[in-house]
Write a structure and sequence with these properties.
The complex is a heterodimer of chains A (about 40) and B (about 575). Chain A is an all-alpha fold and about 40 residues long. Chain A contains 2 helices and no strands. The termini of chain A are far apart. Chain B has helices spanning about 5-20, 30-35, 40-55, 55-70, 80-90, 90-100, 105-110, 115-145, 150-195, 205-215, 235-250, 250-260, 265-300, 305-315, 320-350, 355-380, 390-400, 405-440, 445-475, 475-500, 510-525, 530-555. Chain B is globular. In chain B, about 55% of the residues are buried. Classes of the chains: A mainly alpha (about 40), B mainly alpha (about 575).
Chain lengths: ~40, ~575
C-alpha cells in the first residue's frame, strides 16, 4: 500500500508535464491541418 | 494470389511466431509471463498499445469507410489525446504503484472482492466474445480474397496468436506487436505512394484530392448536435473521451500493455505515444480509402467488390436484372470519369468549377446503382448484413499491387487481427488466473503451477474465441450484437474506477450496486436509438452518481488511508 507521496522513481524521472501540453498543441495543429487541407482542395 | 505472395504470407507469419518466441525470457515465473518482469521499454509498450487497438477490422473496414465517407470517422478519435493525458495523471500511477496484474485487482484493494469479481467477469464475457468477432469479421472477407474456406481462414488468423501467446506470454505478444506495427505502417505508406503513381498524370494527387473534396470526403469536422448521429465533433470529443478512458483505463487487454513498461515514466510515455500518433495513423488509413476512391474514378471499378457474390448472382434467377444494372453502371462510370477530368482540370487551371455538377450527379447515380446491386446480393445470398465496402481495399490490393507486395499487404491485414487477438488472449488468461483461479480456487501454489494454469487458460480462451468466430461467421447479425454488448459495459466499468479515485467516501456496496444501476440505465437508454458513443458517458455518470448516493447510505465509510493505494 502506498500514499500519494511521489516515489523515488518518480522523483528521479525526467519531467513529463510538458508532454501533456504538447499533446494538445499537436492535436490542435493536426485538426487545423486537416481543416486547411479540406479547404485547400475544395 | 500468386504463389510468390503465398510464400511471403506463410514465411512472414512463421518468422513472426518464431521470433516472438525467441525473444521471450523468463517464462518460468508468473510476473515474467504476464508482465514481462516490468522490463519493456516505453516505445515497445506504446507500439503494443497501438497494435492492440488496430485490428484487421481497422485495415478493412476503416479503409472502406474512407472510400465511401472520407474523413468523417476521424472524429471518433478526437477525445483520445485528452483521455490519454487524464489516464497518465490518474489511473496509470495507481495501477503501477499498486503492482497489480489486473486492473480489477485494484478494485478489491479499494472496495471489496465482489466488485472486483463482477468487473472482471464483465470483462471476460465481453472480451471473450469480441475476440471471436475480431477473428470472424476479417476471416469472412479474407476467405473470399484468398479463396479459402472461412474456417481455414479463421484458423490462419487465430492459430499463430494462440501458439505464441501460450508459449511466449506477454513478451512474445509485445515484441510481435512492434514488428507488426512496422509492417502495417510501412505497407500503408507504400500503398499511398502506389495509389498516387496510379492516378492519370494530368490529374495527379491534387486532382484526386479535389474530387474527394467536392464529394465531401475531406471534411474532418461536423459540428451537428444530434445524439443519434455516430460521428460528429461532439460525440467524438465527449462520448469518445469516455470510450477511450474506458478502453485504455479499464480494459485489461490495454492495461496489461502498459503495466509491462520498465517504469511509471515509461508506462505514461507508452500511452502518450497514442495521444500523439493515433489520429495521424487513422488519417493515413482513411487517406488510403480516399485515394482508392480517386483511383477508381479513373480506373473502372467492379460493380461489386466481392467476386464470389457477383458470380453467385450471375448464376441466379436475378442474373438478367444484374446484367441490366451492369449496363447502367458501365455508362455511369464513363460519364463520371469524363466529368471528373473536366472538374479536376478546370480546378487545377483555376478556370472555375466546370463539370462539377455533372460529376456529382454521375457519382450519386453510381452510388444508387451499387445500392441496387447490393440489394440483389442480399436477396440471392440471404446475407442481410452483407457490406460490399469491406471488400474494396483487399480487392484493390490483389488486383493492382505488384506480386510480392500483395503478399506483404495480405499478411499485414491478417497479422493486424492476430496481434489484437494475442493481446486479448493474454489479458483474458491473466484475468481468469489472477482474479478467479488464484483468488478463489488455489490461493497458495508455486509459480510453475500458476504458469501451467495460465497456459491452459490462454488455450481455453483461444478455443472459445475460435468457436465464437465460426459461429459468428454464420450468423452475421451476431457481430452487431457483440459490439453493442461491449458498449453496454464499458462506461459502467469506467464509472466504478471513477468512483474509486474521485470519491474518497465511496465504499464496496456503493460501487457494486452502482455498477448494476449503471448497467440497467445503459440498457434502458440504449432503446432510445442514441449513438453508442454516448452510452459510455451515460454508464459512467450513472454508476458514479448512484455509487456516491448508495455509499452515503449503506455500510461503514472507509478511513481515508484505505482509500489510497
Amino acid at each position: 500500500m502506498r500514499t500519494n507521496e511521489p516515489d523515488l522513481e518518480e522523483r528521479d524521472a525526467p519531467p513529463i508535464r510538458h508532454h501533456y501540453v504538447l499533446v494538445f498543441v499537436v492535436q490542435a495543429l493536426t485538426l487545423a491541418t486537416l481543416w486547411f487541407v479540406s479547404r485547400l482542395f475544395l | 494470389m500468386h504463389y510468390i505472395d503465398w510464400i511471403i504470407l506463410v514465411g512472414v507469419m512463421a518468422w513472426i511466431v518464431w521470433d516472438g518466441l525467441r525473444r521471450t525470457k523468463d517464462r518460468e515465473h508468473l510476473e515474467g509471463y504476464f508482465l514481462a518482469n516490468r522490463s519493456i521499454p516505453w516505445w515497445a509498450a506504446g507500439l503494443s498499445v497501438m497494435a492492440t487497438q488496430l485490428s484487421a477490422i481497422t485495415m478493412i473496414g476503416t479503409t472502406g469507410q474512407g472510400y465511401t465517407d472520407g474523413m468523417r470517422l476521424i472524429q471518433l478519435y478526437y477525445g483520445l489525446p485528452l483521455a490519454m493525458v487524464i489516464l497518465s495523471v490518474t489511473l496509470v500511477p495507481f495501477f503501477y504503484r499498486a503492482r497489480v496484474y489486473t486492473a480489477y485487482e485494484y478494485l478489491e484493494r479499494r472496495f471489496d472482492p465482489k466488485t472486483r469479481s463482477l468487473t472482471s467477469l464483465l470483462f471476460l464475457l465481453q472480451r471473450g466474445m469480441s475476440c471471436g468477432v475480431i477473428i470472424s469479421a476479417p476471416a469472412v472477407v479474407m476467405s473470399i480474397i484468398l479463396g479459402l474456406d472461412v474456417t481455414a481462414t479463421a484458423f490462419l488468423i487465430g492459430l499463430p496468436a494462440i501458439v505464441y501467446t501460450v508459449f511466449g506470454g506477454v513478451q512474445a505478444v509485445t515484441w510481435t506487436d512492434v514488428k507488426i506495427m512496422v509492417l502495417i505502417i510501412g505497407g500503408l505508406l507504400v500503398t499511398v505512394l502506389l495509389l498516387i503513381l496510379g492516378l492519370p498524370d494530368q490529374i495527379g494527387f491534387s486532382g484526386a484530392m479535389h474530387l474527394a473534396g467536392v464529394t465531401g470526403r475531406l471534411k474532418p469536422i461536423d459540428f451537428t448536435w444530434d445524439p443519434q448521429q455516430t460521428y460528429t465533433f461532439w460525440s467524438g470529443l465527449i462520448g469518445g473521451t469516455f470510450l477511450m478512458l474506458s478502453y485504455f483505463g479499464c480494459d485489461q487487454s490495454q492495461v496489461q500493455r502498459y503495466l509491462t513498461a520498465d517504469s511509471l515514466h515509461s508506462a505514461r510515455h507508452s500511452l502518450l505515444m497514442s495521444a500523439y500518433w493515433k489520429i495521424p495513423l487513422q488519417v493515413l488509413v482513411l487517406l488510403v480509402g480516399i485515394l482508392v476512391y480517386g483511383f477508381y474514378v479513373f480506373t473502372p471499378p467492379p460493380m461489386l467488390f466481392n467476386a464470389v457474390h457477383e458470380r453467385e448472382v450471375q448464376q441466379s434467377a436475378r442474373a438478367s436484372d444484374y446484367a441490366a444494372l451492369q449496363g447502367q453502371f458501365d455508362t455511369a462510370v464513363a460519364a463520371r470519369r469524363q466529368a471528373a477530368e473536366t472538374t479536376a482540370t478546370a480546378w487545377q487551371r483555376g478556370t472555375g468549377r466546370d463539370g462539377e455538377v455533372e460529376f456529382l450527379a454521375a457519382d450519386a447515380e453510381l452510388k444508387r446503382i451499387r445500392g441496387q446491386a447490393v440489394a440483389i446480393v442480399k436477396g440471392v445470398s440471404g446475407d442481410s448484413n452483407y457490406n460490399d465496402v469491406n471488400y474494396v481495399f483487399p480487392t484493390f490490393l490483389t488486383t493492382y499491387l505488384p506480386v510480392g507486395l500483395v503478399g506483404l499487404m495480405m499478411v499485414a491485414i491478417i497479422l493486424a487481427a492476430t496481434d489484437s487477438i494475442a493481446a486479448e488472449l493474454n489479458s483474458l488468461s491473466t484475468a481468469t488466473v489472477i482474479d478467479f483461479y488464484k483468488r478463489y480456487w488455489k490461493v497458495e501454489a508455486t509459480d510453475a503451477h500458476y504458469l501451467n494454469v495460465s497456459k491452459l487458460a490462454t488455450a481455453f480462451w483461444g478455443l472459445f474465441a475460435s468457436i465464437v468466430a465460426i459461429w459468428a461467421s454464420e450468423l452475421g447479425s451476431l457481430i452487431e450484437v457483440v459490439n453493442r454488448f461491449g458498449s453496454f459495459f464499458y462506461g459502467s466499468i469506467l464509472g466504478v474506477f471513477m468512483l474509486a479515485i474521485l470519491w474518497r467516501r465511496a465504499n464496496g456496496t456503493g460501487a457494486f450496486v452502482g455498477l448494476i444501476v449503471g448497467l440497467l440505465t445503459v440498457l434502458a437508454v440504449s432503446t432510445t436509438g442514441i449513438s453508442f458513443l454516448w452510452l459510455n458517458l451515460v454508464g459512467a455518470v450513472a454508476v458514479f452518481l448512484s455509487g456516491m448516493i448508495i455509499s452515503e447510505f449503506a455500510g461503514p465509510r472507509q478511513p481515508p488511508s484505505a482509500a489510497r493505494v
